[in-house]
Design a protein that fits this description.
Belongs to the anaerobic coproporphyrinogen-III oxidase family. HemW subfamily. A hairpin with a 2-residue loop joins strand 11 and strand 12. Helices cover 39% and strands 19% of the residues. The model has no long low-confidence stretch (mean pLDDT 94). It has helices at 52-55, 64-82, 104-118, 137-146, 160-166, 174-184, 202-214, 232-238, 247-263, 289-295, 322-331, 344-355, 369-380, 386-390, 398-402, 404-412; strands at 8-9, 29-35, 89-96, 120-130, 150-156, 188-195, 219-224, 267-270, 273-275, 299-303, 308-311, 314-318, 336-341, 362-363, 393-394. The longest helix has 19 residues, at 64-82. It has 16 helices and 15 strands. The strands form 3 sheets. It has a 9-stranded mixed β-sheet with strand order 8-9-7-6-5-4-3-2-10, sandwiched between helices. A 4-stranded antiparallel β-sheet has the order 1-13-12-11, with no helix packed on it. Helix 7 (202-214) packs parallel to helix 9. The chain has 2 domains: 8-295, pyruvate-formate lyase- activating enzyme (Alpha-Beta Horseshoe); 343-414, no CATH class. By secondary structure, the protein is of the alpha/beta class.
Length: 414
Amino acid sequence: MPAQPEGDPAPRDGALPAASVARATDRTLSLYVHVPFCAVRCGYCDFNTYTMDQLGDGVSQRDYHADAAAEVRFARSVLDAAGAPPRALHSVFFGGGTPTLLPAWELALMLEQARESFGLAPDAEVTVEANPDSVSEETFDVLAAAGVTRVSFGMQSAVPHVLRVLERTHTPANVPRAVGWAKDRGLGASVDLIYGTPGESVADWRTSLEAALAMDPDHVSAYSLIIEDGTKLAAQIRRGEVPDVDPDDQAEKYTLADALLREAGFEWYEVSNWSRAAHGRSAVQNRSVHNLAYWRNQDWWGIGPGAHSHSDGVRWWNLKHPLPYTAAVRRGDSPAVGRETLNGETQYVEHVMLGIRIREGLPLEGLRPEGRHAVAGLIADGWLDGAAALRGSAVLTDAGRLMADAVTRRLLDW
């Protein structure tokens, strides 16, 4: 797992500067709830997750919902003390880890605490990540009744040998069954895929895409496999036990994904995310509201061990291990261990890095002179849309999406 970021010590009472909430009425507020438990740790994963044998004594899944609910109440008290006006939550996202390792009624209790503490906007999106092996029909009965609107299924691949390399333990046949259960209860269904796994052929990747499309989801996320330092898969590659990822192979698979998704009626709205009109909702309505809040640099509070939060230029992060996290919450202290106030330069860099990835792109008037000067060359290279630039926005072309990092560097004059 990655080390915690460097930053200033976080105050024990969690107090926020008044400047971090001064523009709150113009900014949305979202809630992320991190569930740090997994049945098995996947070899490619560097998220802050734990199996029960890793945790040992002193940490119980049974108590987690109460501790998370306590932090939700704490979050509201901190925002009130800072002078933030009341804001109903724009979105709630239960991620992990594997949220569905907890009983569905415990997720419902955490959502109810969020509703009591903040309220939900009338059109709020509430998403739960799910492992298809850890759900039943009753799971979705409870989640739908609680007010969940979307389920994000961690499929990754439909090909058994690819799943083995990733050390994903779910049974591929369980994915369409679980997606069907969610859809039968009126829940939106998103399918998450990973491409570029060592040993995955283009034919394997096509199989996974076609399997995902056969489930008739309204949203698909497709991420290239990134080898993170400290993971089991990184060590296997270093020892030569499996081949390293191939950027050209990943580019070919991204292009195939975009083509097949487009044929099926999906449209991209962020480099790795596609949505389509389905079940009485438009493609825009089926975008991930919660993730767009991140890409648009809105405000969010992260609940749980290792969770990160942001309020208009102030960022903080919680203790990573569940044991000290739990102890802090039960004392009534902030579980945050560090924070930073972003300077203007950092905020501008993040604005460009995140904004260029979404379909609407970046307003040219918000770019610094060096960024505006780079636009003509990027259009000539075929990476930015010339017509969009004439309308005042820097928008990636299809080819430009493959080169998003290079476009970002050019706009920042790096």
